[in-house]
Amino acid sequence: xAQQPRLYNIRPHIYVERQEIRKNLExxxxxxxxxxRQKRGFKSGRKDFDSYLDYSYMLENAEKKPRFTSPSMIxxxxxxxxxxxxxxxxxxxxxxxxxxxxxxxxxxxxxMFNGPKPPPAWSPSLDDLKLRQRSKDDLIxxxxxxxxxxxxxxxxxxxxxxxxxxxxxSGVIAKFAREQVLDKDLVRLMPGSWLNDEIxxxxxxxxxxxxxxxxxxxxxxxxxxxxxxxxGKVLNVHYFxxxxxxxxxxxxxxxxxxxxxxxxxxxFSKDIVLIPVNHNNTHWTAAAINFRQKRMESYDSMDLxxxxxxxxxxxxxxxxxxxxxxxxxxxxGWEDYILKDTPQQENGYDCGVFTCQFLExxxxxxxxxxxxxxxxxxxxxxxxxxxxxxxxRTDP
Length: 396
Fold this sequence. Notes:
By secondary structure, this protein is α/β, with parallel strands linked by helices. The chain is built from 13 helices and 7 strands. The protein folds into 2 domains: 8-114, no CATH class; 154-389, Adenoviral Proteinase, Chain A (Adenoviral Proteinase, Chain), CATH 3.40.395. Helix content is 49%, strand content 9%. The strands form 2 sheets. A 5-stranded mixed sheet has the order 3-4-5-6-7, sandwiched between helices. A two-stranded antiparallel ribbon has the order 1-2. Helix 1 (12-39) runs parallel beside helix 5 (92-114), helix 7 (157-168) packs across helix 13 (376-389) and helix 9 packs parallel to helix 12. 27% of the residues are buried.
């Protein structure tokens, strides 16, 4: 006799349990979304918030167990995206792990927003006093600068037409220095897509090119968004491509032969060294070695723990100094720096755009960032124009 297919809806003890799990997941997401909008000022919709949760879940799992080895950033959301139909076909323990993760996030959020504020430090250390003084100096510097104008919502009509034209082209779209962008790369700047190595490295090459040109012409450039058209300083920067971090973390300074990367560059004469960081091929962040401020810096649009980044940066700088100068690097007065109000993404795919904009702002000596999640659609169109014309715009 032919075997009859099993129907889960006639087994209440399993079917009802799984329905309850799915209901609990949605209820937890609803609460998290409500807290995010009320307490964090989250402006994006529920669909973007769900992608943000899926992305956070993916990043935490990727940190514990790297799964991807491709040298190029690809769209991996489907690997971790939560699908109700797929979840019902898995074991209940698989779904519970997602439910427990969401419950833990909810508990942390509620504790953070409802708990008492920690008491102020009674006796600050010398380092604390130095940081406070530096913060005051930075605040004074920001007040002395002209107020930056908000970013526009769109490009001028003529430039928007050029962007549309660029997106219709095929083959090689642009070449600059040793980098090039193809049509398949450029479309990654359309909404909802992750950026790959080619886009980020091309943008980094434009940043480096502007810095070199500024030195040659004796022109300090213009800070984007500054009122009264006051000129600001374009820093003397060095940019490492996305493959530098992979070499450094996978092979190390000696085995990766990273001394050759700076054979014609005196890294210690630069104002700042800019480094795009690919974390387990799942997330982009920006790192910097800031010689002007004596800081190791990390800028993350997901605000995750990046203490490992600082450790790697310090190890590299010491190894580079020993190789080029013959002595250990003196870290006296140096600090690990994370900007308190670093702009945060509200979805699971804009990290690459945030990273490019962090690097571009840092190359102009900016201490804060003049953009947020609301500005990303405009910045994606702007980056298409900039790549297509191989130049960085000087208007807001």
